[in-house]
Amino acid sequence: MNIKRYFAKNSREALSMVKKELGEDAVILSNRAVDGGNEILAFREADIESMISDEPSRKPVRHRLEDFDEAASEPTFLSYVNKNHRDYRGEVASSGFSDSDEREFDRSETDQSAHVRNLPPKVFTQRRSAEKLSIDPAMLEPINRPAQKNVVKTSATKPVVATQAAPAPKVIETIVTSNADREASEQQIANMMSEIRIMRNAIESQLTEMSWGSIQKRDPVKAMMLGTLLTGGFSPALSRQLAEKMPANLTQKEAMNWTQAIIDKNLITMPDETDILDKGGIFTLIGPTGVGKTTTTAKLAARFVMKHGASKLGLITTDAYRIGGHEQLRIYGKILGVMVHAVKDEADLQIALEELKGKHTILIDTVGVSQRDRMVSEQIAMLSNTNRKIKKLLCLNATNTSETLTDVINAYKGKGLDGCIITKLDEAAIIGNVLDVAIREKLRVYYVANGQRVPEDLHLANKKVLVHRALKLGTQNNSPYKLATSEIPFVMGATRNKPGVAHLMEADHA
Protein backbone atom coordinates (compact mmCIF):
# COMPACT_ATOMS: atom_id res chain seq x y z
CA MET A 1 0.00 0.00 0.00
CA ASN A 2 1.45 3.34 -1.05
CA ILE A 3 0.49 6.09 1.43
CA LYS A 4 1.12 9.61 0.19
CA ARG A 5 1.41 12.85 2.10
CA TYR A 6 -0.05 16.12 0.85
CA PHE A 7 0.69 19.51 2.39
CA ALA A 8 -1.04 22.83 1.61
CA LYS A 9 -1.99 26.12 3.25
CA ASN A 10 -5.44 24.85 4.20
CA SER A 11 -7.51 21.68 4.07
CA ARG A 12 -9.36 22.75 0.92
CA GLU A 13 -6.19 23.03 -1.13
CA ALA A 14 -4.79 19.78 0.30
CA LEU A 15 -8.02 17.93 -0.51
CA SER A 16 -7.94 19.32 -4.02
CA MET A 17 -4.43 17.93 -4.48
CA VAL A 18 -5.61 14.50 -3.25
CA LYS A 19 -8.53 14.44 -5.66
CA LYS A 20 -6.35 15.55 -8.55
CA GLU A 21 -3.74 12.81 -8.07
CA LEU A 22 -5.66 9.91 -6.50
CA GLY A 23 -9.15 10.55 -7.81
CA GLU A 24 -12.56 10.97 -6.17
CA ASP A 25 -12.39 7.55 -4.44
CA ALA A 26 -9.17 8.26 -2.55
CA VAL A 27 -9.07 7.07 1.05
CA ILE A 28 -8.16 9.72 3.64
CA LEU A 29 -6.12 8.38 6.55
CA SER A 30 -5.62 11.62 8.43
CA ASN A 31 -6.27 15.33 8.12
CA ARG A 32 -4.57 17.58 10.63
CA ALA A 33 -3.31 21.11 11.02
CA VAL A 34 0.45 21.45 11.25
CA ASP A 35 2.83 24.38 11.41
CA GLY A 36 2.38 26.44 8.30
CA GLY A 37 -0.67 24.68 6.89
CA ASN A 38 -2.60 21.42 6.70
CA GLU A 39 -1.40 17.84 6.13
CA ILE A 40 -3.41 14.94 4.62
CA LEU A 41 -2.33 11.29 4.40
CA ALA A 42 -4.15 9.30 1.69
CA PHE A 43 -3.88 6.31 -0.65
CA ARG A 44 -5.78 4.88 -3.60
CA GLU A 45 -8.86 2.71 -3.18
CA ALA A 46 -7.20 0.08 -5.39
CA ASP A 47 -4.69 -0.50 -2.59
CA ILE A 48 -7.55 -1.64 -0.33
CA GLU A 49 -8.74 -4.12 -2.94
CA SER A 50 -5.24 -5.57 -3.13
CA MET A 51 -5.26 -5.97 0.65
CA ILE A 52 -8.42 -8.14 0.59
CA SER A 53 -7.51 -10.15 -2.54
CA ASP A 54 -7.31 -13.97 -2.35
CA GLU A 55 -3.84 -14.08 -3.90
CA PRO A 56 -1.26 -14.98 -1.24
CA SER A 57 1.26 -12.54 -2.65
CA ARG A 58 -1.13 -9.60 -2.05
CA LYS A 59 -2.03 -10.39 1.55
CA PRO A 60 -0.76 -7.47 3.67
CA VAL A 61 -0.64 -9.40 6.91
CA ARG A 62 2.65 -10.49 8.32
CA HIS A 63 1.26 -13.79 9.68
CA ARG A 64 -0.94 -15.89 7.39
CA LEU A 65 -3.48 -18.40 8.63
CA GLU A 66 -1.69 -21.22 6.76
CA ASP A 67 1.40 -20.67 8.91
CA PHE A 68 -0.43 -21.99 11.92
CA ASP A 69 -0.74 -25.49 10.30
CA GLU A 70 3.02 -25.99 10.64
CA ALA A 71 4.89 -27.72 13.48
CA ALA A 72 3.29 -27.58 16.91
CA SER A 73 6.57 -26.32 18.30
CA GLU A 74 5.93 -22.97 16.56
CA PRO A 75 3.73 -20.45 18.39
CA THR A 76 0.04 -20.51 17.54
CA PHE A 77 -1.87 -17.52 16.20
CA LEU A 78 -3.78 -17.22 19.47
CA SER A 79 -0.61 -17.16 21.54
CA TYR A 80 0.84 -14.57 19.17
CA VAL A 81 -2.22 -12.35 19.56
CA ASN A 82 -2.23 -12.73 23.34
CA LYS A 83 1.49 -12.01 23.53
CA ASN A 84 1.15 -8.84 21.47
CA HIS A 85 -1.80 -7.80 23.58
CA ARG A 86 0.18 -8.28 26.80
CA ASP A 87 3.18 -6.47 25.35
CA TYR A 88 0.97 -3.58 24.31
CA ARG A 89 -0.62 -3.29 27.76
CA GLY A 90 2.81 -3.39 29.36
CA GLU A 91 4.04 -0.58 27.14
CA VAL A 92 0.96 1.50 27.94
CA ALA A 93 1.43 0.95 31.67
CA SER A 94 5.11 1.85 31.53
CA SER A 95 4.48 5.00 29.48
CA GLY A 96 2.03 6.38 32.03
CA PHE A 97 -1.15 5.98 29.97
CA SER A 98 -4.31 5.24 31.91
CA ASP A 99 -7.12 2.86 31.04
CA SER A 100 -9.15 5.81 29.82
CA ASP A 101 -6.37 6.66 27.35
CA GLU A 102 -6.36 3.09 26.06
CA ARG A 103 -10.13 3.08 25.72
CA GLU A 104 -9.90 6.35 23.79
CA PHE A 105 -7.37 4.78 21.41
CA ASP A 106 -9.54 1.66 20.98
CA ARG A 107 -12.53 3.87 20.30
CA SER A 108 -10.61 5.77 17.61
CA GLU A 109 -9.62 2.47 15.99
CA THR A 110 -13.22 1.27 16.12
CA ASP A 111 -14.46 4.52 14.58
CA GLN A 112 -12.20 4.01 11.58
CA SER A 113 -13.87 0.67 10.83
CA ALA A 114 -17.41 1.91 11.52
CA HIS A 115 -18.15 2.43 7.84
CA VAL A 116 -17.78 -1.16 6.69
CA ARG A 117 -20.84 -2.41 4.85
CA ASN A 118 -20.87 -5.60 2.83
CA LEU A 119 -17.94 -7.86 3.44
CA PRO A 120 -16.77 -10.29 0.68
CA PRO A 121 -17.59 -14.00 0.97
CA LYS A 122 -14.12 -14.68 2.31
CA VAL A 123 -15.25 -13.45 5.73
CA PHE A 124 -17.05 -16.73 6.25
CA THR A 125 -13.85 -18.71 5.55
CA GLN A 126 -12.02 -16.51 8.00
CA ARG A 127 -14.76 -17.03 10.56
CA ARG A 128 -14.48 -20.81 10.35
CA SER A 129 -10.70 -20.57 10.62
CA ALA A 130 -11.09 -18.35 13.64
CA GLU A 131 -13.37 -20.88 15.31
CA LYS A 132 -10.66 -23.52 14.95
CA LEU A 133 -8.19 -21.11 16.55
CA SER A 134 -10.58 -20.31 19.45
CA ILE A 135 -11.04 -16.71 18.27
CA ASP A 136 -14.35 -15.08 19.10
CA PRO A 137 -16.34 -15.06 15.81
CA ALA A 138 -17.93 -11.75 16.81
CA MET A 139 -14.59 -10.09 16.12
CA LEU A 140 -15.14 -10.71 12.42
CA GLU A 141 -18.81 -9.67 12.35
CA PRO A 142 -19.60 -6.53 10.32
CA ILE A 143 -20.88 -3.58 12.33
CA ASN A 144 -24.52 -3.11 11.37
CA ARG A 145 -25.16 0.57 11.93
CA PRO A 146 -25.80 3.56 9.65
CA ALA A 147 -22.84 4.98 7.87
CA GLN A 148 -21.46 8.16 9.39
CA LYS A 149 -19.07 10.71 8.08
CA ASN A 150 -16.22 10.85 10.53
CA VAL A 151 -12.94 12.66 10.65
CA VAL A 152 -10.09 10.20 11.17
CA LYS A 153 -8.55 10.77 14.61
CA THR A 154 -4.79 10.80 14.89
CA SER A 155 -3.14 9.77 18.13
CA ALA A 156 0.35 9.98 19.49
CA THR A 157 -0.15 6.56 21.11
CA LYS A 158 2.04 3.76 19.71
CA PRO A 159 -0.05 1.87 17.12
CA VAL A 160 -0.55 -1.90 17.37
CA VAL A 161 0.80 -4.02 14.48
CA ALA A 162 -2.08 -5.61 12.54
CA THR A 163 -2.32 -9.36 13.19
CA GLN A 164 -5.62 -10.18 11.48
CA ALA A 165 -6.24 -10.08 7.75
CA ALA A 166 -9.55 -8.24 8.06
CA PRO A 167 -11.05 -6.36 5.13
CA ALA A 168 -10.02 -2.71 5.32
CA PRO A 169 -12.94 -0.25 5.40
CA LYS A 170 -13.49 2.49 2.86
CA VAL A 171 -13.19 5.68 4.87
CA ILE A 172 -15.52 8.53 3.95
CA GLU A 173 -14.26 11.66 5.60
CA THR A 174 -15.72 15.13 6.00
CA ILE A 175 -13.06 17.76 5.89
CA VAL A 176 -13.57 20.10 8.83
CA THR A 177 -12.88 23.66 7.87
CA SER A 178 -10.12 25.22 9.91
CA ASN A 179 -10.72 28.25 12.12
CA ALA A 180 -9.03 30.53 9.61
CA ASP A 181 -11.28 29.32 6.80
CA ARG A 182 -14.34 29.68 9.01
CA GLU A 183 -13.42 33.24 9.94
CA ALA A 184 -12.83 34.05 6.28
CA SER A 185 -16.27 32.67 5.41
CA GLU A 186 -17.90 34.68 8.19
CA GLN A 187 -16.13 37.81 6.97
CA GLN A 188 -17.36 37.19 3.42
CA ILE A 189 -20.92 36.80 4.71
CA ALA A 190 -20.60 40.01 6.75
CA ASN A 191 -19.31 41.89 3.70
CA MET A 192 -22.15 40.56 1.59
CA MET A 193 -24.75 41.61 4.20
CA SER A 194 -23.17 45.06 4.38
CA GLU A 195 -23.42 45.44 0.61
CA ILE A 196 -27.06 44.32 0.74
CA ARG A 197 -27.82 46.94 3.40
CA ILE A 198 -26.13 49.63 1.31
CA MET A 199 -28.20 48.63 -1.71
CA ARG A 200 -31.36 48.63 0.41
CA ASN A 201 -30.63 52.10 1.80
CA ALA A 202 -29.96 53.41 -1.70
CA ILE A 203 -33.24 51.99 -3.00
CA GLU A 204 -35.21 53.33 -0.02
CA SER A 205 -33.58 56.74 -0.41
CA GLN A 206 -34.53 56.88 -4.09
CA LEU A 207 -38.09 55.83 -3.31
CA THR A 208 -38.33 58.54 -0.63
CA GLU A 209 -37.00 61.14 -3.04
CA MET A 210 -39.59 60.08 -5.60
CA SER A 211 -42.31 60.27 -2.95
CA TRP A 212 -41.41 63.81 -1.88
CA GLY A 213 -41.00 64.81 -5.50
CA SER A 214 -44.58 63.74 -6.17
CA ILE A 215 -45.75 65.64 -3.06
CA GLN A 216 -44.21 68.81 -4.46
CA LYS A 217 -46.29 68.40 -7.59
CA ARG A 218 -49.51 67.44 -5.81
CA ASP A 219 -49.29 69.93 -2.93
CA PRO A 220 -46.84 72.80 -3.60
CA VAL A 221 -47.92 74.63 -0.42
CA LYS A 222 -46.79 71.73 1.74
CA ALA A 223 -43.47 71.67 -0.11
CA MET A 224 -43.11 75.41 0.44
CA MET A 225 -43.76 75.00 4.17
CA LEU A 226 -41.23 72.21 4.35
CA GLY A 227 -38.59 74.45 2.78
CA THR A 228 -39.41 77.21 5.27
CA LEU A 229 -38.89 74.89 8.23
CA LEU A 230 -35.58 73.60 6.89
CA THR A 231 -34.28 77.08 6.10
CA GLY A 232 -35.38 78.31 9.54
CA GLY A 233 -33.10 75.79 11.24
CA PHE A 234 -35.56 73.06 12.15
CA SER A 235 -34.28 69.52 11.76
CA PRO A 236 -35.31 67.45 8.72
CA ALA A 237 -36.85 64.89 11.08
CA LEU A 238 -39.21 67.40 12.75
CA SER A 239 -39.87 69.17 9.43
CA ARG A 240 -40.85 65.88 7.79
CA GLN A 241 -43.03 65.00 10.77
CA LEU A 242 -44.90 68.31 10.54
CA ALA A 243 -45.28 68.07 6.76
CA GLU A 244 -46.73 64.57 7.03
CA LYS A 245 -49.28 65.72 9.62
CA MET A 246 -50.22 68.86 7.69
CA PRO A 247 -53.69 68.69 6.09
CA ALA A 248 -53.77 68.73 2.30
CA ASN A 249 -54.86 71.60 0.07
CA LEU A 250 -54.24 74.44 2.55
CA THR A 251 -53.52 77.96 1.42
CA GLN A 252 -50.11 79.43 2.15
CA LYS A 253 -51.45 81.47 5.08
CA GLU A 254 -53.38 78.51 6.49
CA ALA A 255 -50.30 76.30 6.27
CA MET A 256 -48.21 78.91 8.08
CA ASN A 257 -50.80 79.30 10.85
CA TRP A 258 -51.18 75.53 11.21
CA THR A 259 -47.41 75.02 11.49
CA GLN A 260 -47.02 77.84 13.99
CA ALA A 261 -49.83 76.42 16.13
CA ILE A 262 -48.28 72.94 16.19
CA ILE A 263 -44.82 74.23 17.20
CA ASP A 264 -46.41 76.54 19.77
CA LYS A 265 -48.28 73.59 21.29
CA ASN A 266 -45.12 71.51 21.71
CA LEU A 267 -42.78 74.26 22.94
CA ILE A 268 -42.84 74.41 26.76
CA THR A 269 -42.28 77.81 28.37
CA MET A 270 -42.78 79.46 31.76
CA PRO A 271 -45.99 81.53 31.88
CA ASP A 272 -44.63 84.00 34.49
CA GLU A 273 -41.78 84.52 36.94
CA THR A 274 -43.60 83.00 39.89
CA ASP A 275 -41.50 79.82 39.87
CA ILE A 276 -38.26 81.76 40.34
CA LEU A 277 -38.91 85.19 41.83
CA ASP A 278 -41.91 84.40 44.04
CA LYS A 279 -41.58 80.72 45.04
CA GLY A 280 -37.86 81.01 45.53
CA GLY A 281 -35.40 78.16 46.00
CA ILE A 282 -31.89 77.35 44.83
CA PHE A 283 -31.12 77.76 41.13
CA THR A 284 -27.85 77.05 39.35
CA LEU A 285 -26.94 78.04 35.81
CA ILE A 286 -24.81 75.48 33.98
CA GLY A 287 -23.42 75.24 30.46
CA PRO A 288 -20.25 75.34 28.33
CA THR A 289 -17.71 78.12 28.33
CA GLY A 290 -18.82 81.46 26.90
CA VAL A 291 -22.53 80.71 26.84
CA GLY A 292 -23.32 83.68 29.13
CA LYS A 293 -23.92 82.08 32.52
CA THR A 294 -22.40 84.82 34.68
CA THR A 295 -24.15 87.66 32.86
CA THR A 296 -27.46 85.81 32.98
CA THR A 297 -26.98 85.15 36.72
CA ALA A 298 -26.46 88.89 37.25
CA LYS A 299 -29.62 89.66 35.24
CA LEU A 300 -31.68 87.26 37.35
CA ALA A 301 -30.19 88.70 40.55
CA ALA A 302 -31.07 92.25 39.47
CA ARG A 303 -34.67 91.27 38.66
CA PHE A 304 -35.03 89.62 42.08
CA VAL A 305 -33.51 92.55 43.99
CA MET A 306 -35.86 95.00 42.25
CA LYS A 307 -38.85 92.92 43.39
CA HIS A 308 -37.88 91.54 46.82
CA GLY A 309 -34.74 93.41 47.92
CA ALA A 310 -31.10 92.42 48.33
CA SER A 311 -31.46 90.95 51.82
CA LYS A 312 -33.38 87.90 50.60
CA LEU A 313 -30.93 86.93 47.85
CA GLY A 314 -27.78 84.81 48.08
CA LEU A 315 -25.10 84.53 45.39
CA ILE A 316 -22.58 81.69 45.02
CA THR A 317 -19.93 81.14 42.37
CA THR A 318 -17.93 77.96 41.71
CA ASP A 319 -15.63 79.69 39.20
CA ALA A 320 -12.45 79.37 41.26
CA TYR A 321 -10.35 77.92 38.42
CA ARG A 322 -9.90 80.96 36.21
CA ILE A 323 -7.78 83.88 37.36
CA GLY A 324 -10.31 86.47 38.46
CA GLY A 325 -13.13 84.21 37.31
CA HIS A 326 -15.44 85.20 40.16
CA GLU A 327 -14.58 88.90 40.05
CA GLN A 328 -17.23 89.68 37.42
CA LEU A 329 -20.03 88.35 39.64
CA ARG A 330 -18.50 90.11 42.69
CA ILE A 331 -18.75 93.40 40.82
CA TYR A 332 -22.42 92.79 40.03
CA GLY A 333 -23.00 91.72 43.66
CA LYS A 334 -21.37 94.87 44.96
CA ILE A 335 -23.61 96.98 42.72
CA LEU A 336 -26.70 95.11 43.93
CA GLY A 337 -25.58 95.04 47.56
CA VAL A 338 -25.36 91.23 47.70
CA MET A 339 -22.37 89.31 49.07
CA VAL A 340 -20.92 86.66 46.73
CA HIS A 341 -19.62 83.37 48.19
CA ALA A 342 -16.88 81.60 46.24
CA VAL A 343 -16.64 77.80 46.59
CA LYS A 344 -14.26 75.29 45.04
CA ASP A 345 -15.65 71.89 46.00
CA GLU A 346 -18.64 70.05 47.41
CA ALA A 347 -17.68 70.72 51.04
CA ASP A 348 -17.38 74.47 50.46
CA LEU A 349 -20.73 74.46 48.65
CA GLN A 350 -22.39 72.69 51.57
CA ILE A 351 -20.98 75.26 54.01
CA ALA A 352 -22.13 78.18 51.84
CA LEU A 353 -25.63 76.76 51.54
CA GLU A 354 -25.83 76.40 55.33
CA GLU A 355 -24.80 80.03 55.77
CA LEU A 356 -27.45 81.15 53.25
CA LYS A 357 -30.27 78.83 54.37
CA GLY A 358 -32.35 81.80 55.53
CA LYS A 359 -32.35 83.40 52.07
CA HIS A 360 -35.49 83.32 49.92
CA THR A 361 -33.59 82.66 46.69
CA ILE A 362 -30.03 81.49 46.04
CA LEU A 363 -28.40 81.75 42.61
CA ILE A 364 -25.30 79.68 41.81
CA ASP A 365 -22.98 80.60 38.94
CA THR A 366 -20.82 77.71 37.74
CA VAL A 367 -17.50 77.50 35.93
CA GLY A 368 -17.76 76.99 32.19
CA VAL A 369 -16.12 73.92 30.68
CA SER A 370 -16.48 72.12 27.38
CA GLN A 371 -19.35 69.67 27.24
CA ARG A 372 -16.80 66.95 26.49
CA ASP A 373 -14.63 67.69 29.52
CA ARG A 374 -14.72 65.16 32.36
CA MET A 375 -15.18 68.08 34.77
CA VAL A 376 -18.79 68.28 33.63
CA SER A 377 -19.68 65.06 35.43
CA GLU A 378 -17.79 66.22 38.53
CA GLN A 379 -19.68 69.49 38.46
CA ILE A 380 -23.06 67.75 38.12
CA ALA A 381 -22.15 65.39 40.97
CA MET A 382 -21.20 68.30 43.23
CA LEU A 383 -24.54 70.02 42.61
CA SER A 384 -26.53 66.81 43.05
CA ASN A 385 -24.94 65.53 46.28
CA THR A 386 -25.99 68.38 48.56
CA ASN A 387 -28.77 68.02 51.12
CA ARG A 388 -30.68 70.86 49.45
CA LYS A 389 -32.70 70.64 46.25
CA ILE A 390 -30.90 72.59 43.52
CA LYS A 391 -32.75 73.29 40.27
CA LYS A 392 -30.43 73.13 37.27
CA LEU A 393 -31.04 75.53 34.37
CA LEU A 394 -28.98 74.85 31.23
CA CYS A 395 -27.89 77.85 29.17
CA LEU A 396 -28.22 77.13 25.43
CA ASN A 397 -26.38 79.30 22.92
CA ALA A 398 -28.80 80.10 20.07
CA THR A 399 -25.90 80.49 17.63
CA ASN A 400 -24.84 76.84 17.97
CA THR A 401 -25.89 74.16 15.52
CA SER A 402 -28.51 71.56 16.37
CA GLU A 403 -25.83 68.89 16.67
CA THR A 404 -23.80 70.97 19.15
CA LEU A 405 -26.87 71.82 21.22
CA THR A 406 -27.86 68.16 21.40
CA ASP A 407 -24.32 67.27 22.47
CA VAL A 408 -24.46 69.89 25.24
CA ILE A 409 -27.79 68.60 26.55
CA ASN A 410 -26.60 65.00 26.56
CA ALA A 411 -23.50 66.00 28.54
CA TYR A 412 -25.25 68.12 31.17
CA LYS A 413 -28.58 66.40 31.70
CA GLY A 414 -27.00 63.87 34.08
CA LYS A 415 -29.63 63.29 36.77
CA GLY A 416 -32.07 65.62 35.04
CA LEU A 417 -32.52 69.22 33.98
CA ASP A 418 -35.25 71.50 35.28
CA GLY A 419 -35.23 73.82 32.30
CA CYS A 420 -33.14 76.01 30.03
CA ILE A 421 -32.38 79.62 29.22
CA ILE A 422 -31.75 80.58 25.59
CA THR A 423 -28.85 83.04 25.35
CA LYS A 424 -27.31 85.14 22.57
CA LEU A 425 -30.63 85.31 20.74
CA ASP A 426 -29.58 88.65 19.27
CA GLU A 427 -26.54 87.04 17.60
CA ALA A 428 -28.40 84.14 15.96
CA ALA A 429 -29.30 84.32 12.26
CA ILE A 430 -31.84 81.52 12.71
CA ILE A 431 -33.39 80.15 15.91
CA GLY A 432 -35.27 77.09 14.67
CA ASN A 433 -32.33 74.94 15.77
CA VAL A 434 -32.59 75.82 19.47
CA LEU A 435 -36.40 75.57 19.45
CA ASP A 436 -36.18 72.19 17.73
CA VAL A 437 -33.81 70.87 20.43
CA ALA A 438 -35.98 72.24 23.25
CA ILE A 439 -39.05 70.54 21.74
CA ARG A 440 -37.23 67.27 21.15
CA GLU A 441 -35.78 67.12 24.70
CA LYS A 442 -38.99 68.41 26.35
CA LEU A 443 -37.06 71.24 28.04
CA ARG A 444 -38.97 74.10 29.62
CA VAL A 445 -37.67 77.46 28.36
CA TYR A 446 -37.53 79.90 31.31
CA TYR A 447 -35.94 82.98 29.79
CA VAL A 448 -34.33 84.28 26.62
CA ALA A 449 -31.35 86.64 26.66
CA ASN A 450 -30.78 88.97 23.73
CA GLY A 451 -28.01 91.32 24.82
CA GLN A 452 -25.42 92.29 27.44
CA ARG A 453 -27.41 94.89 29.34
CA VAL A 454 -28.24 94.01 32.95
CA PRO A 455 -31.08 93.44 33.61
CA GLU A 456 -32.84 94.80 30.52
CA ASP A 457 -31.80 92.09 28.06
CA LEU A 458 -33.49 89.17 29.83
CA HIS A 459 -37.10 88.30 29.03
CA LEU A 460 -39.61 85.61 29.79
CA ALA A 461 -39.82 83.14 26.93
CA ASN A 462 -42.84 84.02 24.79
CA LYS A 463 -43.52 80.99 22.61
CA LYS A 464 -45.64 82.82 20.06
CA VAL A 465 -42.94 85.42 19.49
CA LEU A 466 -40.21 82.79 19.25
CA VAL A 467 -42.09 80.57 16.78
CA HIS A 468 -43.14 83.53 14.64
CA ARG A 469 -39.55 84.75 14.46
CA ALA A 470 -38.22 81.27 13.63
CA LEU A 471 -40.65 80.83 10.71
CA LYS A 472 -40.08 84.38 9.50
CA LEU A 473 -36.33 83.79 9.33
CA GLY A 474 -37.09 80.65 7.32
CA THR A 475 -38.73 82.66 4.56
CA GLN A 476 -35.57 84.61 3.69
CA ASN A 477 -35.21 84.25 -0.05
CA ASN A 478 -31.75 85.83 -0.22
CA SER A 479 -30.11 83.30 2.10
CA PRO A 480 -27.38 81.25 0.39
CA TYR A 481 -28.38 78.34 2.62
CA LYS A 482 -32.00 78.26 1.53
CA LEU A 483 -32.86 74.99 -0.18
CA ALA A 484 -34.19 75.07 -3.70
CA THR A 485 -37.46 73.28 -4.29
CA SER A 486 -35.72 70.61 -6.33
CA GLU A 487 -33.24 69.93 -3.49
CA ILE A 488 -35.82 69.16 -0.82
CA PRO A 489 -36.48 65.54 -1.94
CA PHE A 490 -32.76 64.77 -1.62
CA VAL A 491 -32.71 66.05 1.98
CA MET A 492 -35.82 64.07 2.85
CA GLY A 493 -34.42 60.93 1.24
CA ALA A 494 -31.13 61.17 3.11
CA THR A 495 -32.80 61.68 6.51
CA ARG A 496 -35.72 59.28 6.15
CA ASN A 497 -34.59 57.12 9.10
CA LYS A 498 -34.01 59.99 11.53
CA PRO A 499 -36.40 59.80 14.52
CA GLY A 500 -38.90 62.61 14.87
CA VAL A 501 -40.26 64.12 18.08
CA ALA A 502 -41.88 61.51 20.30
CA HIS A 503 -45.52 62.20 21.20
CA LEU A 504 -45.80 65.30 19.05
CA MET A 505 -48.98 67.07 20.14
CA GLU A 506 -51.37 68.62 17.66
CA ALA A 507 -52.82 72.10 18.03
CA ASP A 508 -56.27 72.42 19.55
CA HIS A 509 -57.76 73.82 16.37
CA ALA A 510 -55.69 71.72 13.95
Automatic annotation (TrEMBL):
Q: Which domain of life is it from?
A: Bacteria
Q: Where is this region: Disordered?
A: 92-118
Listed Basic and acidic residues bias regions: 104-114
Give the location in the cell. Cell membrane
A biological process (GO) annotation for this entry? SRP-dependent cotranslational protein targeting to membrane
Return the SMART domains for the record: AAA (SM00382), SRP54 (SM00962)
Matching entries from SUPFAM superfamilies are given as: P-loop containing nucleoside triphosphate hydrolases (SSF52540)
Which Pfam families does this UniProt record tie to the protein?
Answer: SRP54
Family per UniProt?
A: Belongs to the GTP-binding SRP family.
Name-wise, this protein is: Flagellar biosynthesis protein FlhF
> To which species is this protein native?
Methyloradius palustris
